């Protein structure tokens, strides 16, 4: 059997299994093992040799898994996840929201803006979009509803704000992208800063315009704060600002690697929580339990994806895809738009990490062949995955918010609010695509 046929067969069946809601890790690993076995079984000719295929299949699978799990940069994943959970239980992340809320109390849509900025601060510590939406949803949505904000605005702001966890460093998606494409994670983190702030600016603009056009959806609070109260609230947020400076300032200044920054910032967050008596032993154990579960989930998907990448490389399917595109003489822009559409469509149905790991073996050789910077393309991919977190019918952040409010606000109501932000997200994506300098300015100056 021709290797390309085996590769195409494996890829199609994998997509079918994923569409049938088979967990993506099992789909990737299962098909990778079976198709690798078929590849080695048919390698000597048309007659299948079952016995001779066993050893090379096991050797290839085990060596790839071993090399991936013993990768030093992979250790930053549980470190950043632990940092996020510890910061949440120590109330470091919530202090950002309350500080911004005090300053924006009299601004139209001020509570919603504070929620978006709070999500940015949370993202700058945790690196997880879903964790950001879940944690900030519990804090911000009840507060906005208490001040008679419309359910659409209250829920959609946190849903879209939660997506910033994918772009604002540290980002789990950037870490996995860097590991699979062998790119500098330090540079990927820095590349996400300006696009992340640009996305935040777009969210704040939409909230402001929404509040002006429909003031009944965002009533201005009657509460006033003195200058002393504002500065006191700002000072309370110093641990969060310190952690962000350690992570970004340390990496940009060449003081830390991303892994070292993760370890140092986690230790500081833990020390603060203990010394300030905000982190109890029960909270610490819960944070470690959540870290273990989340890390194990990510590692399992990543290991299964590594098997799939090895299988794709073995069959030469990527080379055939490049040859097909060269045959039809597609322009660079046509290829980029096609890739963007594929990510947007897949984002409507699948988990962001799974989408990225499933598609990288095919799109990275295309991008390299066109001579584009893989750091810039990492930002493009993560922005597309970020958009997928809020697109119907399966916008994961929307369902997270729905569960946070105990289903009291219907999913379709949240989606109707999110639609107002989607156009802004597409504009930001277009700017990132058209002007690579937005992503490359900071990493190139490193």
Automatic annotation (TrEMBL):
Regions crossing the membrane: 6-39, 72-90, 110-132, 153-177, 189-210, 237-255, 292-314, 334-367, 374-401, 421-442
InterPro entries: DctM, TRAP_DctM
Protein location: Cell inner membrane
Membrane topology: Multi-pass membrane protein
Pfam families: DctM
Keyword Cell membrane: yes
Alphabetic keyword roster: Cell inner membrane, Cell membrane, Membrane, Transmembrane, Transmembrane helix, Transport
Keyword presence, S-adenosyl-L-methionine: no
Ranges where the TRAP C4-dicarboxylate transport system permease DctM subunit domain occurs: 11-436
Alphabetical list of PANTHER family matching this protein: C4-DICARBOXYLATE TRAP TRANSPORTER LARGE PERMEASE PROTEIN DCTM, SIALIC ACID TRAP TRANSPORTER PERMEASE PROTEIN SIAT-RELATED
Family: Belongs to the TRAP transporter large permease family.
Quaternary structure and partners: The complex comprises the extracytoplasmic solute receptor protein and the two transmembrane proteins.
Primary role: Part of the tripartite ATP-independent periplasmic (TRAP) transport system.
Protein name: TRAP transporter large permease protein
């Amino acid at each position: 059997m021709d290797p390309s046929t085996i590769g195409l067969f494996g890829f199609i069946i994998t997509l079918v299994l994923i569409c049938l809601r088979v967990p993506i890790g099992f789909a990737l690993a299962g098909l990778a093992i079976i198709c690798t076995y078929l590849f080695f079984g048919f390698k000597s000719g048309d007659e299948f040799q079952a016995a001779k295929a066993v050893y090379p299949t096991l050797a290839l699978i085990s060596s790839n898994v071993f090399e991936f799990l013993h990768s030093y940069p992979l250790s930053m994943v549980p470190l950043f996840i632990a940092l996020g959970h510890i910061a949440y239980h120590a109330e470091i992340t919530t202090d950002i929201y309350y500080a911004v809320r005090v300053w924006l109390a009299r601004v139209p849509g001020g509570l919603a803006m504070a929620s978006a900025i709070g999500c940015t601060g949370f993202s700058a510590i945790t690196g997880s979009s879903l964790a950001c939406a879940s944690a900030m949803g519990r804090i911000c949505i009840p507060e906005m509803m208490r001040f008679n904000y419309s359910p659409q605005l209250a829920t959609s702001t946190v849903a879209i704000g939660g997506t910033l966890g994918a772009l604002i460093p540290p980002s789990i998606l950037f870490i996995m992208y860097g590991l699979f494409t062998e790119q500098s994670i330090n540079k990927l983190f820095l590349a996400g800063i300006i696009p992340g702030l640009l996305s935040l600016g777009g969210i704040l603009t939409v909230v402001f315009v929404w509040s002006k056009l429909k003031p009944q959806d965002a009533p201005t609070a009657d509460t006033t704060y003195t200058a002393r109260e504002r500065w006191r609230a700002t000072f309370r947020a110093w641990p969060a600002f310190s952690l962000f400076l350690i992570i970004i300032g340390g990496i940009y200044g060449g003081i830390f690697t991303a892994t070292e920054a993760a370890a140092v910032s986690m230790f500081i967050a833990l020390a603060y929580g203990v010394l300030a008596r905000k982190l109890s032993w029960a909270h610490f154990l819960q944070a470690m339990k959540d870290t273990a579960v989340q890390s194990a989930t990510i590692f399992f998907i990543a290991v299964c994806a590594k098997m799939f990448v090895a299988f794709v490389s073995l069959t030469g399917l990527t080379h055939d895809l490049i040859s097909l595109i060269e045959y039809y003489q597609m322009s660079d822009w046509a290829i980029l738009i096609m890739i963007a559409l594929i990510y947007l469509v897949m984002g409507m149905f699948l988990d962001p990490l799974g989408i990225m790991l499933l598609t990288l073996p095919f799109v990275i050789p295309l991008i390299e062949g066109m001579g584009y910077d893989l750091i810039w393309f990492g930002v493009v991919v993560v922005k597309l995955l970020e958009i997928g977190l809020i697109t119907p019918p399966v916008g994961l952040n929307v369902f997270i918010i729905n569960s946070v409010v105990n289903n009291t606000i219907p999913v379709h109501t949240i989606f109707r609010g999110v639609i107002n932000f989607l156009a802004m997200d597409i504009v930001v994506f277009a700017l990132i695509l058209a002007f690579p300098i937005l992503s490359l300015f900071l990493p190139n100056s490193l």
